[in-house]
Amino acid sequence: MDKTLADLIRISNITGKDPALIQGGGGNTSVKTPDGKFLYIKASGTDLKNMNARAGWCKLRLAPVLAIMKDKSIAKLGAQPREAKIVKHLLLACTDKASVASRPSVEAHLHAMLDNRCVIHLHPVAVLSFACARNGEIELKKLFKKIENHKLKIKNVSPPLWIPYAHPGFALASQIAKLLADYQNRFGKKPAVLFLQKHGLIVSAHTPDAALKLLRTVINRCKGKLKYPKAVKAKRPNKKIVAEIKQCISEALFKATGKHTVIKYFYDGQIAAFCRDKNAKKLLTPPALTPDELLYVNGPAMWLDDCGPKKNTRRLNSLIKKGKTPPVAFLVKSVGLFVAAPVRVAPAVRDIVKNSFVIRTNAFRLGGICALNKAEQNFINRWEADAFRKKLATGTPAGV
Ligand SMILES: [Zn+2]
Hints:
Elements: H1 3-16, E1 28-32, E2 38-42, E3 57-61, H2 62-70, H3 72-76, H4 79-92, H5 108-113, E4 118-122, H6 125-131, H7 136-143, E5 161-163, H8 170-187, E6 193-196, E7 200-205, H9 208-223, H10 239-257, E8 263-266, H11 269-276, H12 280-283, H13 291-297, E9 302-304, H14 309-321, E10 329-332, E11 336-340, H15 346-365, H16 374-382, H17 384-392
Parallel strand pairs: 5-6, 9-10
Antiparallel strand pairs: 1-2, 1-4, 2-3, 4-7, 6-7, 8-11, 10-11
Helix pairs in contact: 6-15, 10-14, 13-15
The chain binds zinc ion (ZN).
Zinc ion is lined by residues 26-27, 121, 123, 199-200, 400.
């Protein structure tokens, strides 16, 4: 196997199996060939942990990918035709005839813009705890005044760059392009660490090992400032109660939407700890924090004090009347987490919901929770590229 491709699969598999770093089909990785002519990148709709020598990636010619951001005709288009055109350009940049199932990541041009060969983009819970907090930017600045880590032999890394939230796709890429140019003027090189508000983290380095080391340094430094709710040893609730609640949620959803949904139940020490938090209900009030939380969960888990189907049907109906899609996750006090999603998506929903507990708890401590606003939510709900991924994975969104 090509060494560049082997490197890509290695960094993807290592990072992709940790739900504290990435959940579901989110995130993307890339490695440029040593001659700087090609870029191997994760395919859209693939999980990082599932990439292998045969599937889950694309090989792109770098020059046409970089040309996308310079094409003035693309910048002038409206959101829908623009994203469609970018996807077409990315497919044309593929070295082999890419099948629909291996469309390159929609963030390929973003990877291409970074000079370092290995790029890792993830949605780590430790970073999002800052990136979804009102004072996140200030706190990260303090924390990363110096990024050098002599123990890990990480040197000459310039300060991280904060990227204010932008709509996924072209808007985000053009915002990053502008900020990278400003940064290069200031520091003489591009940043190795980018914090993306309400979205995640990008690290890059010239070798896969250096990129993985840098990732570990960033995560550990963030973790040092955070509070993780202590997992509690809780007795598993009785099966009859769980079955009754499943039935109640399923009935309420059916009455509100007319659709039958499978309900999965999850319970562990972390879920139990959050259920016991006296602020749980309040922390779950702000809407979706990130595109992933919106795409997979339709917003935060809904807190249920009471499991009567009548009351819950009323709540779900009132959400639908407001034009909202009903939530996918329900947190029931002293019982646990219930997920209304197809079996293959349910674990990703569980991971995002559990991470959101940690993010919300910490963001609250760091000046307050900063969630996606209405316009940001509307854009994601309409986004063509995500519609494609949802379809591709038969009801499974892939995050960004
Ligand atoms: Zn992302």
